[in-house]
Amino acid sequence: MKATAAGLILVAGTAPAQTVPATVEPLVPASGAVLDVVAQGRTTRVPDLAMIRAGVITQGATAAAAMRDNADRMTRVLAGLRRAGIAARDIQTAQVNLQPQYRYAENQPPAVTGYQATNSVAVRFRDVARSGPILDALVAEGANQIDGPSLSLDQPDAALDEARRDAISRARARAELYARAAGLRVVRVLAITEGGSPMAGPSPTADTMREMRRGESKTEVAAGEAEVTATVSVRFLLR
Question: Which of 116, 132, 152 marks a domain boundary?
Answer without folding.
Answer: 152
